[in-house]
Amino acid sequence: MARLWQKDYGLDGLMQRFTVRNDYVLDQQLVMSDVFGSTAHAMGLGRIGMLSSEEVSTLRQGLCEIAALSEEGRFQIREEDEDCHTAIEGYLTAKYGDIGKKIHTGRSRNDQVQTALRIWMREAALVLADEAGRWAQGLLDAARRHESVPMPGRTHTQLAMPSSLGLWFSSYAEEVMDSMDQLLFLAGGVLDRCPLGSAASYGVPIPLDREYTASLLGFKGPQHNVLYANNSRGRFESMLLDVAGYLCATAAKMAQDLILFTLPELGYFSLPVELTTGSSIMPQKKNPDGLELVRSRAARVASSSMLVKDITRCLVSGYNRDFQDTKEPLLDGMRTAYDVIAVMARMLSGLVVHEDRLRQGMRKEIYATDKVFDSVAHGGNFRDSYKAVGLDLDSVEEGDADAALKRRTSTGTSGNLGLDDDYALLGQLTGLVTQRLARLQEVYDALVPSGHHAVGLAD
């Protein structure tokens, strides 16, 4: 099909490559989102009399065909198409003639792209939250199994105070749940407003029912101001990537802990051997390459968000072609984030705990602060007690690790982790994720039957 902006001249070959780049490849990930958006748009045109019921039915049939071809990996987007949006219109026109040419009525490629991306981002936020929930579940289960196992607490990487494996695991679980909460907030907030009908930022002189098409797509309403619908491109992408970046930062921190704590000199844990790699020269090696790549991939996700912000921060209002270059970091960043979380969940499921080595790590100096508080409990003041212990560290004796943990009874400490509360919160979060994903599937099935979905992060 000719380009949607076709003129009476040919485009220079270099400019073709420069402006299209690999969008036609990336857009395979957006075909289903555009099919859903185009179906709702066709139904909206039928509602206001711009299309007959027969034309709407024909277009929906064609879009269902595209959905099936896409699921089978057989829907072709060529470089000359530029993107999936032209390819979809091209298919409809080639098969159904003039009816296919009517699908773009009242729509700019701008709001078409925006709508497809919004559909994709809304579901991607929930899919990532769903995978994060599995990781959090594994962390809480590990915390429960090893709730009272002593573990050296560290500050500045040095020995600090008595801690527990339960505290360590559940600290990461709570951090993951915070990111799940943020993803749900985005999915039910700014990402739940539909840009369809905003056209090229200024609307069109036909009475589009934007509330109707938004409801068909399962959004709580249209994104109200049509110019902001355009100007928000990049803004919402970076918001989503920011939260994905926080989640990956949690993974990177835990990965660093595991790299340190699996050193033979410490030996607190052993990694599942099937998730380690070997050396081309040293036959004994079982390298934590996956964890090392978690660290680097977390940086990649954070960089994706910054790239989107840098592209869009100084643009004049209205559409600018710069927006095109926010698509790749969004799609790559979210897929990378999903893989990072999936790898961490898999790593956790095969992690072997060596309690004996953890207990050996509870060297006597770790009880120095407890000795200060023993003095305070017997009438001493903290400052003088601290000074006395600090000037005579040799007097610190081996402690009872289990007793030291039980003495910590404040909320959230080793002796009072409150794991039941954590499990309850996780249940609420995962319940919301499941409910919203199911609701989206109902919306999709009403538009294009046969169980299609918009996002394939897990594929």
Gyration radius over CA: 28 Å
How many structural domains?
3
Name the CATH class of the largest domain.
Mainly Alpha
- Order of strands across the biggest sheet? 1-2
Beta fraction of the residues?
under 5%
Q: Provide the residue-averaged pLDDT.
A: 93
Structural class: mainly alpha
- Tally of extended strands? 6
CATH topology name of the largest domain, in short, is Fumarase C, Chain A, domain 2
Poorly predicted runs are none
Percentage of residues assigned to helices: 55-70%
Give the overall silhouette: elongated
Number of helices: 18
Quaternary organisation: single chain
Could you state the CATH homologous superfamily of the largest domain?
Fumarase/aspartase (Central domain)
Task: Sketch the major β-sheet.
Answer: 2 strands, antiparallel
Task: Please give the alpha-carbon distance between the first and last residues.
Answer: 30 Å
Annotated CATH architecture of the largest domain: Up-down Bundle
SSE string, helices as H and strands as E? HHHHHHHEEHEHEHHEHHEHHHHH
